[in-house]
Amino acid sequence: MQEPANLPSSPPSTRLRRWLLSLAVLTPLWLLAYAYLDEFATALLGLIGLSRATHLGEAVHFFFYDTPKVLLLLTGIVFLMGIIQTFFAPERTRALLSGKRLGLGNVLAASLGIVTPFCSCSAVPLFIGFLSAGVPLGVTFSFLISAPMVNEVALVLLFGMFGWQVAALYLGMGLLIAIVAGMLIGRLRMERHLEDWVQKIAKGEGATHAPDEDVSWVQRFEAGRGHVREIVGKVWPYVIAGIALGAGIHGYVPEDFMAAIMGRDAWWSVPAAVLLGVPMYTNAAGIIPIVEALIGKGAALGTVLAFMMSVIALSAPEMIILRKALKPRLIATFAGVVACGIVLVGFVFNAVL
Q: I want to staple 317 with a disulfide (CB 3.0 to 4.6 A). Which of 30, 62, 242, 256 is the partner?
């Protein structure tokens, strides 16, 4: 039986209290879930009788750990970006980070990437959130490149293993790649190669409420929820597929084969190392032990660092997730520009050190 059409809905104050109560409960649960992801993955692994000492067990643990991590980040960041979008129109944000300030937005985005401890797949949610808030495409790519590539954990480990000169050169070259690649992609004006649904969100067409000073907090929260439904609802299958591929690769890393390739004194060793790194998937902390092992087997430092950068900045799982938001030509341009920069870094390191 339908209710009368003129039945009043809940008053705004009641809806606001419901939202605040829901957030008061869900926010600690989100933080708790994120903090205990490793324990959760380990417990699930034990339930199915697998051990991380085996290739299969390590791969399954990686999947159990990374899937909820990326989905939690995606949901939380997209919700916040949906709220932020009610304060700032896309046009206002683009005006702030482009025009006369061309290049400054790329520097800021790349610098932000240094202090965000994200792997390539974890950086994708914030990348999509930036686009939805109207941040220029080139600026978002500077963040997407910098966040996984220039990692504070990698800096500390490189400093401890090879000294401050290597760590500083890694930091400088990584930032340079992120800034220049982002500016180049921005100059190419490739916004038309975003998927149609992302273009609509970036233009503000998919916003639940237009940016307005008089928008209530209930409307802002509803805009965030609408953002989650719109974006997470489209991207989650690609997230799971990408992480599944990454988990399989993570559990079966062919270190000996890679060391044999990178240990040869040939001009093609650097580009070969970059190509080998692209199908891999791990974060900066996870790749450092592999870097140390390859160096110990005689591989050149520049070649190994080029491999490391390609693993954490151009992973195949990342490309699968990005495919839902970007068209193939834009993905190819992004991968090509960054790969060329990484190859250059490898040659510079091998020449200088």
A: 242
